[in-house]
Amino acid sequence: MKKILLVIDMQKDFVTGALANEEAQKIIGKIQKKIEEYKKEGNPVFFTRDTHEENYLQTQEGRLLPVVHCVRESDGWQIISELACEVSPVNVLDKPAFGSLELPQWLNERLGDGIPDEIELCGVCTDICVISNAMILKAAFPETVISVEEKCCAGVSPESHRIAIEAMKACQILVR
User: What are the residues whose beta carbons fall under 8 Å from the beta carbon of 20, sequence distance 6 or more?
Assistant: First the structure.
């Protein structure tokens, strides 16, 4: 069974920077362990990176969330140092919004040998970017198992994390 791991937005601004989150800090070791498991089994690991431009505050998202974060090439845009050794330009998708409509095609281009049996997501924020990308992948690959490990994701708050987990379950995303 071919599986891939997709690590969502584990960037400095979400963990220790502009939108620092204690819940995100708590999952770092769990994600490191998950990456090691995937690598040991010979399964690929990919990353997404929330990516904004200098005009962030003039965008719809910036007006609704007026906290400048993840500006391209800034320190806060970088994947956290604990995971950075796993990152290469080939395995990172820079996405300008919560969910990326480019993600399914981008994965197909990197895999080259067909759709995986399972795509597992982890990272932040469960209630924004994780759920958005999980739903896009479920729509693009309806026969692929789309999964999340609850303990490898962190939401804006524990309550919003729980609500997102329940929403994903309702949409046939496997939650472990």
Answer: 13, 14
Percent residues over pLDDT 90 in the chain: 91
Question: Alpha-carbon distance 47 to 128, whole Å?
Answer: 16
* pLDDT digits 0-9 by tens, 133-159: 999 999 999 999 999 999 999 999 999
> CB-side exposure of 101: number of CA atoms within 13 Å?
0
Helix (H, G, I), strand (E, B) or coil at 31: helix
Q: Could you read off the pLDDT of 52-97 as tens digits, one per residue? A: 999 999 999 999 999 999 999 999 999 999 998 888 878 999 999 9
Pairing of strands 118-124, 92-95: unpaired
| First-to-last C-alpha distance (Å) of the chain | 18
C-alpha atoms less than 13 angstroms from C-alpha of 136 in its C-beta half-sphere: 18
Q: Hey, is 34 helix, strand or coil?
A: helix
**Is there a contact between 124 and 10 (Cβ–Cβ < 8 Å)?**
yes
Residues in contact with 31: Cβ distance below 8 Å, sequence separation at least 6, in sequence order: 7, 10, 83, 122, 123, 152
